[in-house]
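Colleagues,

Please find the record for the two-part complex below.
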Amino acid sequence: MTDPFATSLQRVFLYISYASLYIYSPRYTYFPTCSTAKKETMLAATNATEEHVHSTFASRYVRAPVPRFKMPEKSIPKDAAYQVIHDELMLDGNPRLNLASFVTTWMEPECDKLMMAAINKNYVDMDEYPVTTELQNRCVNMIANLFHAPVGEEETAVGVGTVGSSEAIMLAGLAFKRRWQHKRKTEGKPTDNPNIVTGANVQVCWEKFARYFEVELKEVKLKEGYYVMDPEQAVELVDENTICVAAILGSTLTGEFEDVKTLNDLLMKKNEETGWGTPIHVDAASGGFIAPFLYPDLEWDFRLPLVKSINVSGHKYGLVYAGVGWVVWRNKEDLPDDLVFHINYLGSDQPTFTLNFSKGSSQIIAQYYQFLRLGFEGYKNIIENCMENMKVLKQGIQNTGRFNILSKDIGVPLVAFSLKDSSKHTVFEIAENLRRFGWILPAYTMPANAQHVAVLRAVIREDFSHGLAKRLVEHIEQVLKEMDGLPSRLQHKKTERETQEEVFRYWKRLVDRKRAGVC
Amino acid sequence: MSPPPSKQTAFALRLPSFFISLPLSLFSSNFISFIFPVPSFGNTSTMVLSKTASETDVSIHSTFASRYVRNSLPRFKMPENSIPKEAAFQIINDELMLDGNPRLNLASFVTTWMEPECNKLIMDAINKNYVDMDEYPVTTELQNRCVNMIAHLFNAPLGESEAAVGVGTVGSSEAIMLAGLAFKRKWQNKRKAEGKPYDKPNIVTGANVQVCWEKFARYFEVELKEVKLREGYYVMDPAKAVELVDENTICVAAILGSTLNGEFEDVKLLNDLLVEKNKETGWDTPIHVDAASGGFIAPFLYPELEWDFRLPLVKSINVSGHKYGLVYAGIGWVIWRSKDDLPEELIFHINYLGADQPTFTLNFSKGSSQVIAQYYQLIRLGHEGYKNVMENCHENAMVLKEGLEKTGRFNIVSKDDGVPLVAFSLKDNKRHDEFEISEMLRRYGWIVPAYTMPADAQHITVLRVVIREDFSRTLAERLVLDIQKVVHELDALPAKLNARLATEKQEQVKNGTVKKTAIETQREITAYWKKYVTERKSNNKTQIC
C-alpha cells in the first residue's frame, strides 16, 4: 500500500523542513541575543547575585587569575573550582597513551567503584577497619606463595604492603643493614662502612636508599650490548661489609631479567669460602608478576636459598593504579625485631614496619580484587596478551628498518629501540614529534659506560591493545618520514646556500600543510 | 511530533563516541552481552558451556545465584581460575561492610568526607602517576602551587612570587622523615667541617610525639631524647627541652596539636629559650614544628599565635593535608624556611625517562589524586572557607565538651584552645574503665578510642573524640546521649571480673573477713542476666524485626 520510496522521500522532506526550522529559529540567530547575554554576564560579574543560576563559564571565576602563590581570601562555588581545575588538567598528557610508565592506567569499573567507596578509609586504623587489614594480609600470603616462600599451607607469610617499590626497597634494605649490623656487633667488628652491590641499571630508589641510610652503593658497570648486572662481577665486588646483593628482575632500561640463579650459585660458593653469609634481594618491581605466569620454571625467587626478600610493585603488572607495592621476606628471622614497631595506637597493639603511616586503603582493596577476580589464569592471559602485543610492536618497528631493538623477547613486555643512524636526527626528536599524536614515548640515555646509547622505550601494559600497537608503528613511520625532510638539528657546518634552501623547503612545507589541514 | 533533527544528530554522534571512550579491553564477549542483554545462541553459548563444564551460562544468573558466593575465599593462594567481575565486586564489597564506618570513626583526624565535585576530580586522576612530572606537567604545577600557598600561610620569608621550598608527601610520616634527614645531614656536614665526631646525633621531643618520630629515630639511627610528661601537663615543657639540648642535638621538635589532647606547645617560648642557649653555646640548634594536625588550625583560628616561620629558629614545618587540610588520606607537606635548610646532596636530580627531575621523597610512584584534591580545597574554600570550617569544628567541640561535663562523670583533659578534639577520662574508673565505654559505644556504631597516656602519666586513661568537618552538631548531641546511655548501662552491670577480684582482695585486706555471700553473688548474676534478657527482648521488638 505505502510505497517505501515515497515514505523515505517524505522523510527526507521532513528533515529538510526541520533543518530550515533549525536555521531560522530565532534562538539560534546570533547577533540580537548576543549583546543582552553579554550584559547579563557582566551584571553577574559585578553584582555576583544568584551565582548558582549562571553557568560556570558565565561566572567571574573563570576570568580571575588562578591563585598560585597565596591562598585566596574568599571561597568560590564548588562547580567553578571543579571546572577550573578540571580544565587545566586537560593539558596533562593522557595516562592511557603514556607509554613511559609501567604503572597501571586502567582498571575495571567494578574495581573503580570499590576504590571510590574505600577512599575515605585510613589504612593504619587497623582496629577500626579489620577487614581491610585482613585483605592486606591475604594479599601478602598470596604473593609469598606465588614467590615460593617456604611457608606451610595455612601459615601466614612475613610481608607488608607499601606505597610503592621505593618504600618496599627501603624497608628491605633497612632490614639487611640492621641484620648486618647485629652480626658485626656480635663478632665485635666495626659497623660503620656498610655497602650494597647492584648493577648500574637499578632504579633511582636504590641510590636514594644508599644515600639516605648511609650505605655505600657499589655498582657493577654496564657495557654496550649488555645492559644488566653481570653476576660474576657482582660477586667479585662483595666484601665483608656487603649487606646484600640486589638483583633486578626486569631491568628498567631493557626489561631483561638478571640471572639470579647464577648469582645465587656464585655467591653460595663465595659465602662458603669466606663465611660472610651475604644474602640476595630481588627487586622484582616490574618482573614479579611476569615471571611466575610466563616462565614458571625460571628460578629467581625463594626457591634459591640466598634470596631473603623480594619486592614487587602492585601498581605495575599487579594491575592496580599507582600507590601499592609489596615486600615479602623469606621468614621471620630475616626481619630484625627491633625494626618492627608495636604501637599502642588509639586502643590496640599494632605491629608495623613501614615508612609511611596514614594512607588510603583503596589500593590494597583493589589488589585483592585483582587477585580474586583474575586468579592465576587471568593474570597469565593478560601477561600473554601483553607479550603478543609487544611482538607486534617490535615487528612493526623492525620492519621500518631504521631501528636496533635492544630489549629481549624474554622479560618484561617492553620494546626498547635505538636509531641505527642517529647522525642526523636523534631519538629525542622522535619522542618530541610523537607527542603531537598524543603518544608519550620517552627517550633516554643509558647509564654510565653505555651512556652514548640513547633509546626509546615503549612499555606494553594490559590496556595497550593490538590496534594501538599498529597505530603507534604507523605514527613512528610518519614521524620518520617527516624528519627525513627536515634539516638535522645536530650539524651546523652547512653553506649559506644550503641553509637558505632548507629553510625555504621547511617553510614551504609548513605553508602547504596549513592549507591542507588546519583550516 | 518527533524530536527535532538537531537532537537526532546529537544522539547519532554521541553513540559512537561513547564506544570510543570505552577502554578497548572492555570489548570482551562478557561485556558486550552485558550492555546488550541478548540471549546467547550458537557459538557463544557452546563456548561458554565448554569452558565452565556443567554450569549453564554464568552471565544469566544473578550474582547471589552463582557458585562464587558459596566457595570459600582464597586466603593463602591466588585462585587458579578467574571469576566474573560482578561476583568479585560483590564478594569484596560485602566483606567490607564489616569494617567500621569511616564517618563514625572518631579516632582519627583523617578526612572522611569531601565534596562530590572533588570526588570526581580524584577519580579522574586516579590513573595518573605523580612522579611522571614530564608527562603530567599540570599536576606538578598544582603541587608547586600548594607548596607556595602553604608556605605563605606559615609566613615563610618569601617574596610575592618567589617559589617556596617544600614537597608533597604521602603523609606526615614521610614529611617528618625528610625533615629529620635534612637536619641530620646539615648537622653532620657542620660537624665534619669542624672536625668533630658525628656518630651520635640526637633529637629532642616531648614524650607525647606521634610514633613516627620514634620511627625516624630508630631507622635513621638518631637517639630520641624525650621530655617526660607529668599528670596534668601533657605536652613538652620548653624549659626542660632546652635543658636536654647538647652539641649533638640535630633539632628540637615541637608539636602544634599534641595527638593526645590537641594542645599546642609553646613554640615561641621554646624559640626564645633556645635562641639564648644558642648564643651561649654557639650550637645553632634549630626547631622543627610538627604541625600535622594544628597546621591548618592555628593560621585560621589563632592568627596572632607565633609558632611558624615568624620565629627565626623554625627551619621546617610539616603538616598533614589529610587532616585539617581536608583531603582524604594520603597527603602531607613539608616546607623549609629557605633553600639553605635543605642540603643539596639529599636532592636527587634524576634523568628519569627523559627529563631532569629534582626530587626529595622517600616514595616514588604514587597517585596524584590527593595533590589535585588539596589544590581544589585551597582554591575552593580560600582563607574564608577554611576559617569557617575550623570555627564550626571548634563550636561543635564545645557542644560536645559541655554535654560531657553535664553528665558529671568525666574530667575533660583537652584544652579549649588547640585542635578541636575532646579528650576525657572517667572521674571514677574503679568499677568500669574507659575501655569498656569505648567497647560499648561500638554497638551504636561509634568508634571512640580509649588509650593510656605515655610514660610518667600512664596511669591515666582517656577517651578521645576528634571533631572533623563532617561531625555536625546533631551528631555531637547524639554522641552525648549515647555516652549517657552507655554509662547508665555500665552502672547496672557488675564490674569486670578481674577488677572485681582486685577490689575484693583490697576489701579483704581492709576488713579481714568481708567476703560476698553466695546469695549476694547469685543476686548479682541474676541481675546481670535479667538486664541482658530484657534488653535483648526490647531490642528484638524495636530493631531486629
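The longest strand of chain B covers residues 249-255.

Comments are welcome before we finalize the supplementary table.
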